[in-house]
Amino acid sequence: MNKTHLVIVAVILLVFAAQTVLSIKCWECRSDSDPKCADPFDNSTLSITDCRQVEPKEHLPGVRATMCRKIRQKVHGEWRYFRSCAWMGEPGIEGDERFCLMRTGTYNIFMEYCTCNSKDGCNSAGIVNGKFIYVAVMLIFSLIARRVFV
To answer: How far apart are CA 125 and CA 29, in angstroms?
Structure first.
């Protein structure tokens, strides 16, 4: 592979990485209206939603949905699941998508709140940390750049 090919591959990888960061597709459903939304998650009858197409929130002008969310609630002994695009927050806890924020309230209420942006559909049953993809892309780019410009 000559230097021109390496530069083209590097640019393609960077464009792909930027596209992944700027847009995300998430599952959107509620278990109270669709039992397949609960865990184990069955997306066989759902279509994934492009968060760029979701109506902006009136109370968040100018803010775009850049993450996916999965909420698991237990209210008075009944489990409910919500999956959607997310506008605010950060992925996981301190950036680690393997961990979800958990809250317990009064009157037998429990909530687990998971956000992610590592890949399309990351709000399925398991939240998986896919940031290694970005690290790999940057590592490949740096190795290519070193070979091309040295």
So the answer is: 12
